[in-house]
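Dear H.,

Thanks for agreeing to be a second pair of eyes. The structure we're designing against is below in token form, covering all 302 positions.
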């Protein structure tokens, strides 16, 4: 009954606003667990969910993620993170999302080339522990977007800067409480004078998103639970629920609810030449008949 209540989707959506590629989630583990992550332990994707987690960084880490999305879309990420002694961590990462080879036609139906779209975000993240149980972090994002059809007549570009801020408080060794505010001042700013006859400067602002959540290592040593509540300045509200069942020391099965959308996946870890690897997979069923998607992530710790 509690899970049914928490999974209820409230009215309001963030769709239709700029920056949608930064609201899809990142990393197969978090996506499989209902797009939770702000209270998760440190991982290669903490820059996206909560940079405060980098306060727990103990070594170097590389993160890779690629999403095989429906409708020939792509979403990929690469990052490098390292410890900043004595109680801080730093990360740099790059998200790229887009679609290509869309046929372009003029007003009389003649094919003019292929349209390609690319939206990007470069993250510079830092997290530090201020007290024994409190960590604070910030991510600065450089944003840029391109759309072109292979000709000089249409070549759109936009750029901007955004900030994410996060807090993690460790209520107990097995229970984390976290808060994140995402996309402070995030926007795409573009000059369209060369594209349209009456073009000018356009500004597309991202929704300002807040999240509060927890990560709980239950008394059942094989079960972890994550829950988050999300709201934005666009009157959008969403619940996120994730369950992770551990099988032995190296295998995990996961299931979640991202609003009312079911997600699930699996992961495993192994060691090669003193490098610890975490390989994860997530499956996203179709939301509005657009087709299912697959997410693969690989983390290397050394």
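And this is the sequence the design step returned. I haven't edited it by hand at all.
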């Amino acid at each position: 009954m509690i899970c049914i209540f928490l999974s209820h989707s409230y009215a309001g959506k963030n769709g239709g606003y700029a920056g949608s590629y930064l609201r899809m989630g990142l990393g197969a583990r978090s996506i499989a667990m209902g797009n939770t992550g702000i209270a998760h332990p440190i991982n290669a994707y903490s820059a996206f969910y909560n940079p405060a987690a980098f306060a727990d960084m103990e070594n170097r880490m590389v993160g890779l993620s690629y999403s095989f999305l429906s409708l020939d879309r792509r979403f990929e990420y690469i990052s490098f993170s390292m410890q900043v002694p004595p109680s801080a961590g730093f990360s740099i990462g790059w998200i790229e999302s887009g679609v290509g080879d869309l046929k372009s036609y003029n007003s009389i139906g003649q094919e003019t080339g292929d349209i390609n779209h690319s939206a990007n975000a470069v993250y510079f993240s830092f997290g530090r522990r201020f007290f024994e149980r409190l960590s604070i972090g910030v991510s600065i994002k450089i944003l840029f977007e391109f759309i072109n059809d292979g000709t000089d007549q249409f070549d759109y570009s936009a750029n901007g800067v955004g900030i994410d801020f996060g807090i993690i408080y460790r209520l107990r060794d097995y229970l984390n409480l976290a808060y994140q505010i995402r996309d402070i001042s995030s926007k795409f700013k573009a000059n369209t004078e060369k594209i349209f006859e009456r073009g000018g400067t356009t500004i597309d602002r991202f929704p300002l998103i807040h999240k509060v959540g927890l990560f709980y290592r239950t008394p059942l040593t094989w079960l972890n639970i994550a829950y988050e509540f999300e709201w934005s300045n666009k009157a959008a509200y969403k619940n996120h629920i994730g369950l992770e069942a551990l099988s032995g020391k190296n295998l995990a099965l996961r299931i979640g609810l991202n609003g009312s959308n079911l997600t699930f996946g699996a992961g495993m870890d192994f060691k090669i030449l003193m490098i610890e690897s975490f390989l994860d997979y997530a499956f996203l069923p179709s939301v509005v008949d657009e087709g299912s998607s697959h997410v693969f992530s690989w983390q290397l710790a050394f």
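Two observations from my side: The chain has three helices and 16 strands. The CA atoms of residues 154 and 195 lie 6 Å apart.

Warmly,
E.
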